[in-house]
Every structure is written in structure tokens, then in C-alpha cells.
Amino acid sequence: MSAPLLEVRDLHVSIEGKEILKGISLTLEKGQVHALMGPNGSGKSTLSNTLMGHLKYQVTQGQILYKGEDLTALKTDARARAGIFLAFQYPTAIPGVSVANFLRTAMKARFGEKYDPKEFRKQMKASMADLGVDENFATRAVNDGFSGGEKKRHEILQLSLLKPELALLDETDSGLDIDALRTVAEGINRLRGPDLGVLLITHYQRILNYIQPDVVHVFIDGKIIQSGGKELAQELELKGYVPYETAKPIQKETVKQ
To answer: What is the 3-state secondary structure of the chain?
Structure first.
């Protein structure tokens, strides 16, 4: 039996001596979508940045296993080349670097010798068409002057071309209007399949109207308080997070698909 795509074991993480994650455990298999839902300031982005290897976040206890291999000491670029992708809540602008050049460089780093430059533009155009992105987008500077919807479309375009095995989507729905949210969600659903695992981080249920999760985790104060199916997200929409704020954290996730 193969190892899970992602296994987080009793993860504790601190920033400048302050503990933010207080014993996170979860298992995500290939083909699954897990939604991590919690209020602002609960530590959701800390988890995504830690999984990606951000140096600011210090793992003080626990393990992060990716396909059975311990990632804890692996640098961010090595994690990305291994097939882990992080879509940022607030994507950074890179003036002077075109989208096409950025994507070409990223694909070359990801695929190495397997990267085919002759196929690049064909693949990029096809992915842009799928996302409803104008071809002129490729000549614009990365995220420079982009609307919120354009920034998120660009991240899903990266996801499409880089073909990761694990996608960490940190509040991809943040700042999107209804039409942009639907477009981005449709893009994620098109990429969804047996070879991709997704950890979708959000504090709103609305994106889950378009992307149906296999597992939902309630995340409060650096801990997973409860795990369940898609109906848990609907319960959160009705009751909010307050009823969970005094609940004891679970020791491990209770739902596996």
C-alpha cells in the first residue's frame, strides 16, 4: 500500500517564539480535496506556509510527510520541484517580468530535462483559453496592476501548467466577485483528478458551493477542532465559528475518504 500524499503528524509551529500551530494532524490522499475552514487569525496561512517551507515558520515538534518522505528539513524550491504548489492569498507583483517569461522559467525549473519549450506556448494558450484569459495577458508584468480576479486566474494558470501533485490554495476566494469566483472554481474543478490532492484554505463556505470537498476541517486557534464531510461546511455557514471556539481539539482527523 502506497504512502498518503500528505501526512501531517502532531505539527507544532512557532513564529519568533510564539506558538501558532498547536498539534496539527491530518492525512490527505491523492485525488482528495480537503477544505480547511477557520476564522481570520486562526493559523490557516501559517499551515500553508509551513508546508511550503517558509523560513519564518519554525517547526518545533512533529513531522510533515509527502509521499512518505519527511519534508521538515527540505527547502522551499526543492518542495516545489517535488510537486507541491502554493497559491498565495496575496500574490506578489513582479514588475518587468512578463507572465509568459515567468511561466516558462517556472516550468523549466519544475520539469528540468522533461520540459519541452516547443510545447510551452501551445500549452499556455490552451490553459488560458480554458480559464477565459485573453492572450494579451501573457505579455503583462506578473500581477502588476492586476485585479483580484486576474491575480487568482494567474495562480490557477500556474497550477494548470506546473501540474503539481499537491496544491495548497490559501484563500483563493479572497477578493473575488461572483463571476471571478465561479471562473476560478471551474478552473480548479477542471484540474481536479486522481493525480492531484488539494488543501483548500478558506473562511467562507461560498467557494465550496462550486468545489465539493471530500473532507472539511474546522480550524480554531492553531488546532483542528472537528473534521467531517461537506455538510460540516454548511453547518459552519449556519452557526458560524463561535460554537467551536471552546471545543477541545481532536487528536487526529475523524474522516478519511
So the answer is: CCCCCEEEEEEEEEECCEEEEEEEEEEECCCCEEEEECCCCCCHHHHHHHHHCCCCCEEEEEEEEECCEECCCCCHHHHHHCCEEEECCCCCCEEEEEHHHHHHHHHHHHHHHHCCHHHHHHHHHHHHHHCCCCHHHHHCEECCCCCHHHHHHHHHHHHHHHCCCEEEEECCCCCCCHHHHHHHHHHHHHHCCCCCEEEEEECCCHHHHCCCCCEEEEEECCEEEEEECCHHHHHHHHHCCHHHCCCCCCCCCCCCC
